[in-house]
Amino acid sequence: MFEWYQNAQKCYVYLSDVKSGPGYELAFKKSGWFKRGWTLQELLAPQKVEFFSSDKIDKKKLGSKASLITQIHEITEIPELALHGEPLSQFPPAERLRWAKNPKTSVEEDEAYCLLGIFGVFMPLIYGEGSQHAKARLKNEYHSLHLTQPQRVYLHDGGNLSNRLLHRDQVDSSKTEISIGLTDMWEKMGFGRNIRTRANASSSNCLLTIDSWPDTVLFRAGITLLALSQDNRDFQGAWSNSFPGEWPRSTIKFPSPFEKPPRVLVWLSGFDAGDTQNLRIDATVADIRSESFQLHVTPWDASKLYFASATWIAYRADLKGVASGTIATLSYRSNTKIVASDDGIVKFEKPFPRAPKVAIAVNRLDYSVHRDLCFRAYVDNVTADGFQWKMSHEFNAVCFGRTSGL
């Protein structure tokens, strides 16, 4: 229903307990319609909403969501930005929960089901499971699928990007793992090639920072972040830092073993590489078992790597509503050919019920030392059937190959 309302040109609300005429404003504020569980999506999903009175002879238009936005905000405490159409993903989950305020529904499970669209979650409706079980499933599905959009930072005057705040937002609890992958970067040729990303989650916010070493000139950087609840063992993730002595592989043990070997993907989140050789880093996984896997983050062909950090994400292989994969530019061209950009179309093995959220980050880089290090990986035109991926570099960068995981 949420998607139907989103695609509607206009929605009409008939208020059976509000009559037009003097003093209708008070009746409007006290209307039972605002206490319904399904009202939240009926208010937020459509672009245009018009309200009508219950007059028997001639029902009159009381106003629209746009004209009554101040009153609606006062009644519901929903921010006017959200009522104006700001993407709901921009509002913390805890805040969206507050908008519901003990919703009244005729069926108890609908107390959870009426919030599916608000959290961008798809799950089967099982009437008879009870309100508490439905709410627990909603919470688990949200934590499994919640991907934030890539956060990006720009520096226009050159110089180091050090302790730079990327993103600050509310999180559900301190029991949250933040997985980060590089998506966007521009470093000046002839200087150090180093970058480090960090995430610190507390009970009230999540602080993300990007650092570069003193000998690095970092003009721009960007990340994808994935927030995982530690209470949801179907989805696990963590950081792994490696130094030269630990190459070429590390054994990573899952915090909680899976029943069967899970799906695992890995993102590069930082590195310190030599500045006199081509930058060549490859992060891969192998020997995936129920309790552990092998993480390989290796340089090749004389490339020097002093330090690297990678984020890994593992999820139950049969988990519904989740998919992952790897895109390699070498699948589209030879590694000896230099091009400005690569793009392609990914088709999901099984279509989703609605367009999913897609996050992408790099796990392999192959760049010339004689030019700036500059790349960007992103997705576009996401539908229920697939999406378009794009990996490009700018300015004078020379790229031989990149791989991204999503």
TrEMBL record:
PANTHER family: HET DOMAIN-CONTAINING PROTEIN (PTHR10622), NACHT DOMAIN-CONTAINING PROTEIN (PTHR10622:SF13). Residues 250-315, 346-398 form the H-type lectin domain. This is H-type lectin domain-containing protein. One of its GO terms (molecular function) is carbohydrate binding. It comes from the Eukaryota. It holds the Pfam family H_lectin. Gene3D superfamilies: 2.60.40.2080. It comes from Lithohypha guttulata.
